[in-house]
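We give the entry.
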Amino acid sequence: MKKVMMLHCVNHNMYGKRDPKQYGTITLEEIDRLIVETAEKENIRVDSYQSNHEGDIVDKIHEVFYENYDGVIINPGAWTHYSYAIHDALEILECPIIEVHMSNIFNREDFRSHSVIAPVAHGVIAGMGASAYTLAVKGLADLFAEENK
């Protein structure tokens, strides 16, 4: 069974309360449930982690490295646009990384359309609501299947 780390970053604990126009009313717990349900069908174990502290996310990425995770899904939130610390930590990893955003960061404020994370990600999924997370799990499952051929 492959293991994947789901990293929910800054303010994601406020899903369901924060800006429902952009993020809907789904909660982080409901998102995690969707991720786990999708992952189980793909024979993937997902560990989820959320923090509002950038250094905690960097530490968790280091843990992903040392514990040999097979993949990472990350929604960096506002850190998407300026966290070179998270970029540099992700760059260390040798596994696929999928960057996800519930909203379409490319049709919002100009500053949101630039990601410093995307250059180290295998792919980016944006604008699909909570489905972005399940699509990321399915995308990793496809990548894992390809590497086993």
